[in-house]
Every structure is written in C-alpha cells, then in structure tokens.
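Our platform keeps sequence and structure together, in a single record for each protein. Nothing more is needed to write down the fold, since each code stands for a local backbone conformation. An entry from our holdings is shown next, in its original layout:
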Amino acid sequence: MARRSSLLALCLRMRKTRQQGLQRRCRKLPIELRLPTPLLRQLGVASSKDLRGAAKRPPVDSLEGVHDMSTPAWKAIRPASGQRPSPTKKFKIKLMGHFSTGTNYLLEVLEANFGAKVEISENAKGTATIKGCQFWKHTLLTITKQREPQRFAQCAQPEWVGLAMVRNPLAWLQAMKNTGYDLERCVKGADWLTRPCSYPVNVMFGMEFPNLPKIWTRWTQSYEQLSTFGFKRSMLIRYEDLILNTSGVLSQVAVLLNLPFRVDDLVQVESEARHHESTIPVKDAHAQAVSKIVGKTYLSKFSSKEFSDACRRLDHEIMHRLKYRDCDKLTR
C-alpha cells in the first residue's frame, strides 16, 4: 500500500513524463488509497477522497516546481566498446557518498532490483564484501588518493563501476545537524555553519575544513570527476532522483552494467534505509522521504541567519549544475 501511495503522489504531481511504463502504472492505480497527511498537504488536498477526480485524469510526467525528470541531473560515463569485464565476471559496484546522502538506500535498491547479477563493494555497515578498489565510501577522494593511492589501484579495472551519491546541500546540512556521525562536534552551537570543522584524529586523517558547507562542496567536486580516480564506468546520482524517480536512475545504472531492466519490473524499496538518522516507521519510509523532498521541509528548519550563512558558503555553480536552486533567492 505504501508503494502505491507514493507512486500515486508522484503521478498527481507530474506533467510531462516520457516513461510509458510509468504512465501505464499511473492509469491502473486504485483511487481508494490512504496517503500520509503531510503528503496530502503537499498535494493541496484535505483527504484521500479528494484525490478521486485527480486520479481519473490523464497520467503525468515531471514533478512540477521540484525536478524536471526529462533532463536529469545525474551523469553517467560509459567506456568505449570493448572495455568491459570478461563474460565470466560480474560488474563490481563501488558505492560512494558522504554521510546522510542515501548510500545505504541505494544499496538496498540495487540489491532488490539486480540481486546476484552484480557485486557490491560493502554492506550497510561499511564492511568490505569484495576485494579491490577498497577505500572508505565516505572518504574525500582527492585527499585519500594523494595519501593512499594504492587504494585506487584496481578501480580502473573494467569490472568496476563507481556510483556516487550527492544530496541537496541544505537538506544535507539539516540531516547532519540531526545526526552528525564523525562530525558531531561540528553541528553544535549557533555558529555551526560558519566555524571550522574537523574530523576526529583517526578519521579522514583528522583534517580540518573551513566550515560544514565547504565539506559538501569538496566532496561533490570529487564526485563530478570520478574518471580521474580510475573509474571507466561511473555515475553521479542525486538522492532526490533516487527517491522520486527510482526507475529512471536504475535504468541508467542498468545501461552502465549491461543489464536488462524494465520500468514495470521496478522493486520499490519501502522500508527504512539502514542508517541512524531516520525515526520514520519502516512501512512509511519512502512515502515520507517523497513528502520531505516535494515539500522542502528542510528549509523551515533554518533561521534567516542560518540560511544566509549556509548559502553564502556553498558553491552556487555546483548547485546549479545539479539543479539545486534553493539559494537563488538569497541576494548576494
């Protein structure tokens, strides 16, 4: 039921989709669905009954005012013909992304839809499950390659595919404030967005960064150039696209992996991702994630000063390349 509820919400918000499989699924959706109250509010209705008329209208295609699915922000790099593993080998996926960017959710989605057809570098706890291309998935690639280049030696092998996750920087900052992980000390106090931020001495070489927004910028810059770290096949995935357009993201991943994938066969992971941030009931995790992205609920958590502090320290060019425009309203 949660799967259909979140799909119906997407159908009602979309306008110009070109995915015929999604159109067919939208037409077949029952109208007797109960959506979470926050999601109903974002759709501009008071109850699920009010969706009856909307559900009968022609199906839809892009999240109006949120994301344009016809021009996705994620990028994929494919090698020249012939650069692929031998027929007896599977592709090996190296997952990357800072804390709270959805790496564990991506892991669950890949396992649910591709299963044993691929090998994934580590489990949800970060423990390596296969050898080669072994570096911490949350590391800053540029610094780690400088100091421990041997960790990237096998990443250039044709069977390795790099998948990196990035998230809306303002949503990411609020997620980190909620659960800071190794950066817990950085998210305390009124100046949490402006003061220097350091890793513990035993993590990331104990490095210090000018501020927390700068960390988002540095990590994202490295993910935009995955080929420089050896990957012949790679893809940068926005968390928002993974949640709102899972089938579209998986279609691109399937191309990289030379695997068949049909939109109609999508297995939408509804359970809570295996991380420490979320307190959402397991059965409603995906629907709640959709609601937060569509409603931009993270913005209301910033004071006016905090919003200004964050946006003035983020790289707007990178944000625009990834279609994150929340900071455009700030007069610089």
Observations:
- The mean pLDDT is 80.
- Residues 75-269+302-329 form a domain with the Rossmann fold fold (CATH 3.40.50).
- The chain has two domains: 2-56, 75-269+302-329.
